[in-house]
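Structure first, sequence second, as always.
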């Protein structure tokens, strides 16, 4: 939780040591409050009274309300989202050091809808059983990571590699298409990756094997239908 403690302390002409002495606490404690290591919104009422008394201010003067931000599609910008077994019916959203619980199973039209219904978790901390949600889950909630989505795109197959694959899987000229553009991660909007590929036709029983073989080589390939595998190629071939 962001706060104005440092600014108000400075305006009052007090050092961290002087404020700590006035409150009967330590400089380290004051420093932790100022840098957010300790959440100023969750300190004891008696401590808050001492703090405000020393600074001649009100509690609300110290708290900086979080300003929710949205992308151009109206999705709520967050730092991360988590599955926490302690909250099995919701997503835990982290935004600028604050934690919120967003209920699952609802139809959200926008990030503003989420903000209206999510509730703050003041004493939240992740444990080893908390798992970050997968990228593919984001389209089901009106949120987007602050840094966007990093869609991993494998490399293009070389001419020699494609020749060897064709020999190994008995791919004839009739079994391979011309070049066309494919999209990876279309559900992620502007973060999707467009690439050039060809489609090969193989026996349906080996299509998955071919996809895995190419992916293991670092080549972008996808078994998009029974017996159909799209393989990334260089655009200048």
């Amino acid at each position: 939780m962001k706060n104005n403690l440092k600014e108000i302390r400075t305006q009052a002409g007090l050092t961290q040591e002087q404020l700590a002495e006035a409150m009967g606490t330590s400089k380290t404690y004051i420093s932790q409050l100022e840098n957010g290591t300790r959440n100023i919104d969750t300190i004891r009422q008696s401590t808050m009274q001492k703090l405000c008394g020393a600074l001649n201010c009100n509690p609300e003067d110290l708290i900086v309300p979080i300003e929710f931000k949205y992308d151009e599609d109206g999705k709520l910008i967050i730092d991360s989202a988590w599955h926490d077994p302690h909250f099995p019916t919701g997503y835990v959203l982290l935004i600028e050091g604050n934690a919120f619980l967003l209920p699952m199973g609802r139809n959200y039209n926008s990030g503003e809808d989420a903000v209206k219904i999510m509730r703050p978790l003041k004493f939240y901390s992740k444990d080893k059983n908390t798992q970050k949600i997968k990228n593919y889950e984001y389209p089901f909630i009106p949120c987007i990571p602050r840094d966007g989505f990093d869609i991993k795109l494998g490399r293009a197959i070389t001419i020699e590699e494609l020749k060897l694959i064709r020999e190994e899987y008995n791919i004839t000229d009739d079994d391979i298409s011309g070049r066309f553009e494919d999209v990876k991660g279309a559900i992620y909007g502007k973060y999707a990756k467009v690439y050039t590929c060809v489609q090969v036709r193989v026996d349906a029983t080996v299509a998955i094997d071919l996809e895995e073989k190419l992916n293991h080589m670092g080549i972008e390939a996808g078994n998009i239908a029974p017996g159909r595998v799209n393989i990334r190629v260089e655009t200048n071939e």
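Margin note: The CA atoms of residues 113 and 229 lie 40 Å apart.
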